[in-house]
Write a structure and sequence with these properties.
By secondary structure, this protein is mainly α. Helices cover 55% and strands 5% of the residues. Helix 16 packs parallel to helix 18 and helix 19 packs across helix 20. The radius of gyration is 30 Å and the shape is globular.
Length: 678
């Protein structure tokens, strides 16, 4: 029996002399290949793993969906290490090394998404009918090239030159006061011109990442049975989350090594010194070489894996039935066909609802990933590095576990498209409930002199200067907090009125004779009016409870990712799947991952209580926040985005209309099975 002009093996009895022999006769030259056996004879359009006539039997071991998934996962890991790990870890170091401000580094960070948005529609449309694995080979080359370009400034800018260490005790050197005048006409450093090199590297890596999540994902769905595609996609997406985790750990460790260890040894500088610059570039070189090694394996994969023809023939179309015009498929590759196909996809209400829902979820996910360490740091009083570690330990395993669990559930339950949509609604609703976790983590701010405390009545709020430190003539150039023996935090040892630094028995440094520290609650090595470097300890004790609930928030948030991808692939015609993924990724970035961190950042900045004001009176970064307002802002944003996401998904459930062919196919299949049994 044939369905739509294609032999459908689901309706044909299996016999040595039947359909298999018939297909084998079409490709006699490939029938006896020892590495493939009979499976290679099922489809004359399938190719061996190799290039041209070079197709050794050893390569055929990987010529299957599992082999492809292995290399797809490796490429996802390296892409995640570079783009979402190393770049983020290195941004602050690059700012210091190449005299870049946060506005420029923000553009650098967005360069990947900008390139992705510009290219994703064209690559997904024109690559749909092309050789998808070789598109990924080209993607591997571009990612490797982009990483190499990104670290190029290290090799051409010359050795890093650091200045003298700043003094932070009272009184400040008069020469420093004299040199701390505003110079708005100061010539721009030549080092900042390397901004364009960094941006170029990000743009190239963005071009390389585009085929990975459009053509690469569609190739998985084409090559495996419908009930298994969710597992393969879930594993691939989960592996992509390992990249940022490895990137953060690897990049963080390398930042403890001096940047010019290979050509300019350090003398009087340590990682604790504000002038320190770590070896940010080493991991980029290593990952560039490793990613380049994936070019060959992807080049060897055939255009279609063995068994693809049979898998496609057995699949039942679940594309949303919205009329004949929606289901029509253009086969050309002209720009007119590109626009017509794009218009058809944009008119698919189920697809657009899923895309918009996924964008809202991405907005929340990227916001959490970017600012969770800042939340932990300010609410619980930990260092930025330890907060980032805690955030990574919750975000990465939770996201990976959520995607794998959802993929397995969709596969084991063999959910159809409408059931998948209902599953997404369920997970998003549970995630909405868990997102209230920020309310249980609200802690009061540590007393801060000049911010929340008024120097024991001698000063005023919102003014760091008081009679006890006026003679010190302190500078607000560096935020170096200290904790006084009175339990109050000070902006620096200078603002605490400390006139000396003392090394105690354990080798650590403390500050003594601090005029602003009164009524001490404890002493430090017999120093009554003293202070220790660093922030005062937080009185918040709900960290474990917060991390536990937030872990489940992440699990259920990411449990919607894999089912959403599967639903998008099923609700459009087969020949439009790659293009639908391109549309999905475009909206995901334009409405989700790009504005998400900006929205969270603006909201968090609105809770700032102490800004960095430079010598020219310009506002810089924030030094301390109102913890209560920050928690409420994060709850409000995440709840609003998730409610919008649920509304769009529920709308997709009601709008989805399976094609009439699906019911007819099911009825015919049941009749065929009954006749075979009889």
């Amino acid at each position: 029996m044939k369905e739509d002009g294609v032999d459908n093996p689901a309706f044909e009895p299996s016999s040595p002399d039947g359909a298999e022999h018939k297909r084998a006769a079409l490709s006699p030259g490939r029938l006896g290949h020892p590495a493939l056996g009979k499976s290679c004879s099922l489809d004359p359009d399938e190719n061996l793993c190799g290039i041209g006539r070079f197709a050794p039997a050893a390569l055929q071991v990987c010529n299957n969906p599992k082999g492809y998934l292995l290399f797809y996962s490796l490429l996802s890991v390296f892409q995640g290490i570079l783009v979402n790990g190393l770049v983020n870890v290195s941004i602050s170091t690059i700012e210091k090394r190449y005299d870049l401000n946060s506005s420029l580094t923000g553009i650098i960070s967005s360069g990947y998404d900008i390139s992705f948005c510009v290219l994703c529609l064209f690559i997904s449309f024109y690559g749909e009918r092309g050789h998808k694995p070789r598109w990924l080979a080209f993607a591997s080359f571009l990612i490797a090239l982009g990483a190499l370009v990104f670290c190029l400034p290290h090799f051409i800018a010359g050795p890093y030159i650091y200045g003298e260490k700043a003094d932070d005790i009272c009184p400040v050197n008069l020469a420093a006061i004299k040199n701390a005048t505003c110079k708005p006409g100061l010539k721009k450093s030549e080092l900042s011109n390397y901004f364009y090199v960094f941006l170029l590297g990000q743009l190239i890596m963005g071009a390389g990442g585009t085929p990975l999540y459009t053509l690469g994902t569609a190739f998985i769905d084409d090559s495996v049975p419908k009930h298994k595609s969710s597992v393969y996609i879930g594993i691939g997406y989960a592996m992509s989350l390992m990249g940022p985790a490895i990137g953060y750990v690897l990049g963080g460790q390398l930042l403890n090594i001096y940047v010019d260890f290979n050509r300019h040894p350090r003398h009087d500088i340590t990682p604790e010194d504000p002038r320190w610059v770590g070896a940010w570039w080493v991991a980029f070189v290593a990952c560039s070489f490793s990613t380049c090694l994936l070019v060959a394996p992807f080049s060897y994969f055939p255009k279609h894996l063995p068994g693809t023809h049979k898998v496609r023939a057995e699949k039942i179309s679940e594309a949303h039935h919205g009329g004949a015009d929606i289901q029509s498929e253009y086969g050309g590759r002209s720009f007119k066909d590109f626009l017509l196909t794009l218009w058809l996809l944009l008119r698919n209400p189920v697809l657009m609802c899923l895309v918009l829902a996924a964008a809202m979820e991405a907005c929340v996910a990227t916001g959490f990933a970017t600012f969770l360490p800042k939340f932990i740091e300010n609410q619980f009083g930990y260092t930025s590095s330890y907060s980032a570690t805690l955030g990574g330990l919750v975000l990465v395993p939770g996201a990976a576990l959520g995607q794998i669990i959802s993929g397995i559930l969709v596969s084991k339950l063999q959910l159809n498209c409408k059931s998948i949509l209902k599953f997404i609604v369920l997970t998003c609703t549970v995630a909405l409930g868990f997102s209230m976790v920020f309310l249980i983590a609200i802690c009061g701010n540590t007393p801060f002199a000049g911010v929340s405390e008024n120097y024991n009545g001698t000063g005023t709020l919102s003014n760091l200067t008081a009679p006890c430190n006026a003679h010190c003539r302190c500078l607000r150039s560096n935020y170096l907090p200290v904790c006084g023996t009175d339990g109050i935090q000070y902006f620096s040892a200078c603002y605490a009125g400390c006139d000396s630094a003392v090394t105690i028995q354990d080798g650590s440094k403390v500050f003594a004779n601090c005029d602003c520290v009164v009524d001490p609650k404890f002493t430090i090595e017999n120093i009554i009016h003293g202070a220790t470097p660093g922030k005062c300890a937080s009185n918040c004790t709900s960290l474990s409870l917060f991390l536990g609930f937030f872990f489940f928030t992440i699990v259920f948030t990411f449990m919607a990712v894999t089912p959403t991808t599967v639903a998008i692939l099923r609700c459009v015609p087969e020949r439009h799947r790659s293009f639908a993924m391109g549309v999905h990724m475009l909206f995901l970035r334009i409405l989700g991952s790009i504005p998400g961190p900006i929205l969270f950042g603006v909201s968090i900045d609105s809770t700032c209580t102490l800004w960095d004001i430079d010598k020219c009176g310009l506002k810089g970064s924030c030094w301390t926040y109102n913890n209560h307002r920050m928690a409420y802002m994060l709850v409000g944003i995440s709840a609003c985005c998730k409610v919008i996401s649920i509304i769009f998904t529920v709308t997709a459930v009601f709008l989805y209309n399976p094609p009439p062919e699906q019911l007819q196919y099911s009825e015919k299949k049941e009749e065929a099975v009954t006749s075979v049994q009889l």
